[in-house]
Amino acid sequence: MKLVKTIEEMRALSNTVHSRGAHLGLVPTMGALHEGHLSLVRAARDKSDTVAVSIFVNPTQFGPHEDFAKYPRNLERDCGLLEREHVDVVFAPSVEDMYPAGAVTWVTVEGMSDRLCGRSRPGHFRGVTTVVSKLFHIIEPDAAFFGQKDAAQVAIIRRMVRDLNMPVSSEVCPIIRESDGLALSSRNAYLNPNERKSALVLYRSLRRAQELFDRGERDPAKLIATGKQEFAKDSAARLDYLEIVDPDSLESISKISKRALIAVAAFVGNTRLIDNIVVDPER
Length: 283
Ligand code: AMP
Hints:
Strand order of the largest sheet: 1-4-3-2-5-6
Bound molecules: adenosine monophosphate
Structural class: alpha/beta
Helix content: 25-40%
Shape: globular
Mean pLDDT: 98
Number of helices: 10
CATH architecture of the largest domain: 3-Layer(aba) Sandwich
CATH superfamily of the largest domain: HUPs
Radius of gyration: 19 Å
Number of domains: 2
Distance between the termini: 42 Å
């Protein structure tokens, strides 16, 4: 496994891979890797000749009062995990390389970037689409692997890829959860034992909504109201949003007549967590 820290070296390596005619798969991450990330790496390993994983805590997707400075970073541990998964290249550039002084160019998916997390984290998705575009230009992957855990990110990146004719296929992998249902997240490391218990309210609220859906309810307002009741029971968790939207456009829907995304975000203590499930009336 090669650890690459400069854009130049990454480009040279990608050129070599392409000149061999090999299929290059990319897994973009911010590090602090867990089984959720590794499931993406395994999917990439299955479907690619060469697997690259990027590790970059991207400052432009954090708000001024968010956790950029304290976000967990452990490149050595991450590289150990990736080596065991037979990853070929880890790309871990510096912030200065990725954002040279005076950088003022952004990639924005308008409208969609203001929905769900975009509403409570202004500029977040602009940071995500900008850094993913940069990674696509530098690494030139044939396929990129993302987690359904960040469902809005998936929809926004897919729209960007379509709108800008990027020659990359986006693959989406299922959410990996702890045995009690909590979605794995690098931010779970912030939770103290009580918060860890409270954090389950996100998944519980989604399950309540899903159970009502399974009993035939198709009115999003009723499903949302049921999900919200779970939050009323737990004062340690503060709901940011619980919404039901079209998974492709992220627009609200008034009746569930096709696949729908139930997405939740909440603060548990100071930690902001997200989760989602997809319901499908045709299944
Ligand atoms: P991050 O390092 O948080 O930016 O995440 C990198 C990638 O891993 C994103 O595509 C996430 O959606 C994905 N990911 C994070 N947590 C999970 C999880 N629990 N299950 C599946 N994929 C995940």
